[in-house]
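thought: fold this chain, then report.
action: predict
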Amino acid sequence: MSATSEAPSGAAIVTRFAPSPTGFLHIGGARTALFNWLFARHHGGTFLLRIEDTDRVRSTEPAIAAILDGMRWLGLDWDGDAVYQFARADRHAEVAHAMLASGHAYRCWMTQDEIAAQREVAQAAKQPYRIRSPWRDRTDGPLDQPHVVRIRAEREGATTIHDLVQGEVTVQNAELDDMVLLRSDGTPTYMLAVVVDDRDMGVTHVIRGDDHLNNAFRQLTIIRAMAAIEGGWPEPVYAHIPLIHGADGAKLSKRHGALGVDSYRDELGVLPEALFNHLLRLGWGHGDAEIIDREQAIEWFTLEGVGKSPSRFDLKKLDSLNGHYIRAADDARLARLAAGFLPFEARADQVDLLQRSMPALKPRAANLLEIADGAGFLFRTRPLEMDADAQALLEGPARGLLAQLHTALDAVADWNTEALEHAVRQVAEAAGVKLGAVAQPLRAALTGRRTSPGIFDVLALLGREESLGRIADRMTASPGDDTDG
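observation:
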């Protein structure tokens, strides 16, 4: 298959996402999964999932579960069952032994002291270190002694990769060393396992971070060796994507918001469609489009749209996107999700109340936490605790205004926002003050806070009995009562 075209005519596209389960699904991994998923879906191909769990010490079941959960939450469904790399160790070793038998690999008895001595010589000469094993051309080593199996890499000439993102990249073969295929305990290395799994899974396109670009040249040595031995080892098409940086251009870290996907969902209240859209725009674009849904993304996605420069993860942009998708989301769905951020387990009737409040709450919210926080006044018990700002609004002439509001609102026959607004405005006109001078102490009395959704929405959502009761509480409370600091 030629690497110079994105999808050769008539070829079945197969991509894969191959995370190591040593932690949660982080932002960089999620974007890699997304680009592989979109490329496969755009071309009507297959998207596979492989869990690279060969590091038995660091690979954990909770991490595997978190990766699968994060992908499902983002809607990145994979085809077939997930493949677990560790379970294929015998197959990896089989390939190494085939290379050993054919002369494309050799046994090496170099000790760690010998390797360290070579490295010191290279460092003293200010040269990059490349292993040069004295066993490369020897076959008289003691088989009963610990040793590794190394590939016999080409030392002459150069290797060129036609990368769909990076373009044509060439490395001199002299820069590559004889990497280990099997460790001294007989277990396969990452480099070997990846190549064997990709070939056996039929992967046609390897799309991953550009920190793996050097690995591609090393992995090609295995592919070409096996192609010479038995054929049927096609070289994949490579696409190495620039890494993600923080908004300040520095390497992405936790201070930039580099959290696990689950944290954006469970701690920051981000919707999956918002994170999907933000990840998509990290290094890829389609004209000036910023808001891109799943169907458009599948239709538009090509690797030609991936830039060569690092992208920047910006939490402010994510907040903006999330606010857009919150405003567009179904109210019942938002209520169910926001209920999970309340400081108590919501009853069915409370979730129903949340749903009714969504038209008032979601236009002001950037995330589900803000929806839950904005809805807090609905579930507070009387008498309300007042924050300091709210208490300040209830001093001076405010108490007299509350008495007038109580009388006016008690006379409202049809408790709806239009009638409530009319009643409140009449009180303001009679008192000779602007609407805000009435609305602010009313808001404090009803919510215990200085800010809230629109005051008429608050009245309508609380209902007649609760609204009048909260106003009456503040009319009779002593100054400074019920503050929370």
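thought: worth noting. The chain has a mean pLDDT of 93.
final: tokens above.
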